[in-house]
Amino acid sequence: MKDISTAKFDPARAAEYETQSRIGLAGYDACHELAACMLSATLGAESKARILVAGAGGTANEILVAGKLEPHWNFLAVDPSQPMLDLAMSRVEAAGLMGRTEHILGRVGDLPAGREFDAATLIGVLHHLPGKEAKLDILRDIATRLKDSAPLILAGNCLAYASEPLFMAAWGERWRMNGASADEIKAKHGKILQGADPPVSEEEVDRFLDEAGFQKPKRFFSSLFWGAWIAHLR
Questions:
Q1: Domains and CATH numbers, the chain
Q2: DSSP 164
Q3: What percent of the chain is modeled with pLDDT above 90?
Q4: Tens digits of per-residue pLDDT, 180-191?
Q5: Which residues lie closer than 8 Å to 222 by C-beta, 6 or more apart?
């Protein structure tokens, strides 16, 4: 049986994912560009690194942007949704990066044990995992596969949606700017309130990372509910 986080990303959702992502997150491209730059600044320009891309399905922007910036990096893309992984790999192939990208259908915990990776990314994933333990599980699984002191880029929604009605209203206005009707915006509000389970605060993000074995993170991007951090393995 599929779990809720996998079932959400069926073929229909995969087809609309990029459009939805770019409207839903103001600064989508800037976040990915800064994520790549933060990794490059940490690992060193022109470095040779192997990057674990957890939850890679969809736009594959983590790979497209970082692959363009750093021509010597290689990537392992992992995602439990076949339609989302297929979409991501089609974009990687179109960008000419398949020669530097492996892909695995599954979860990080399915990978062989061992500290093989110089860095990892987990972008737009954590708030889709229900409950604290599922969030900690994926962070711990990533941690056990990173080399000592390796960086993790973590990005996603990090506030309880109902706690910020002004942010919710502004998010709805962004959809209106992109042609959504009042009924469509209402439906989107209802879907986001019922369909995701983000950390309730930036402090909770800090606690999750600490429990998973990472040092205190440094935030480098924010947009309404969304935040992005870099954290190094202890």
A1: 4-160+198-232 (3.40.50.150), 161-196 (no CATH)
A2: -
A3: 83
A4: 999 999 999 998
A5: 228
